[in-house]
Amino acid sequence: MKKQSTGFKVVSSSASWQELETGGGLLKMTGNSEAYRTGNWVPKTLEFVEENCINCGLCWAVCPDDSILLDEKGNMIGVDLDHCKDCGLCVEICPPNKNPDPSKHALRFREEESSDF
Ligand code: SF4
Ligand code: SF4
User: Fold this and answer.
1) Residue 72's domain spans which residues?
2) For position 6, what pLDDT does the model report?
3) Position 68 in a domain
4) Predicted structure pTM score
5) Using a 6 Å CB cutoff, which residues line ligand 2?
C-alpha cells in the first residue's frame, strides 16, 4: 500500500513560529514524557503488594502512563513511581481490591505526610 503524504512540511523542533507555514508543520521529534520524572509531584504513593496480585494484567492495560512494570514473562513486578500520576485507574480495576479486607488488596495508595511548601 502506498503511504500517503500528510501535506505538512517537516519542521525542526527549534523552529520559531515565524518559520512555520500557514497550518503549521510536522514535528518529527516531539516531547517524550519518559524524560520527565513527575512521580514526586503527586501527593500519594502507590504501593504494590505482590503476594495479593493474581497477575491478571488489568492494571497494565488501563495505565495511561505505562507505569506498570512487567517482567519478561508478563508478570507484574511493580510500579514505576518516577512516572506514576496517581490517577488511580489501576487501583479501581484491580480484582483483589474488590475484597472488603484492605489487607488483601494488591494496589493501594499510601498517603504521604503533607509538606509545608
Ligand atoms: S495510578 Fe495511574 S499512572 Fe499510576 S500506575 Fe496506576 S494507572 Fe498508572
Ligand atoms: S490488576 Fe491487580 S491483580 Fe491484576 S496484575 Fe495488576 S496488581 Fe495484579
Assistant:
1) 34-111
2) 58
3) yes
4) 0.74
5) 53-59, 76, 93-96, 106-107
Q: Is position 7 within any domain? A: no
Query: For residues 36 and 30, what is the distance between their CA atoms, to the nearest angstrom?
Result: 13
Q: What is the bridge-based pairing of β-strands 76-79 and 68-70? A: antiparallel
Average pLDDT in the 14-33 region?
73
Inside any domain, residue 46: yes
**CATH code of the domain in which 79 resides:** 3.30.70.20
What's the CA gap between 17 and 11, in Å, rounded? 10
| Residue 23, Ramachandran bin (φ over 0: left; ψ between -120 and 50: alpha; else beta) | left
Atom of ligand 1 nearest to the CA of 84: 4
Q: How many domains does the chain have?
A: 1
Four-point Cα dihedral 96, 53, 94, 41, nearest 10: 130
Amino acid present at 85: K
Q: Which residue has the higher pLDDT, 30 or 60?
A: 60
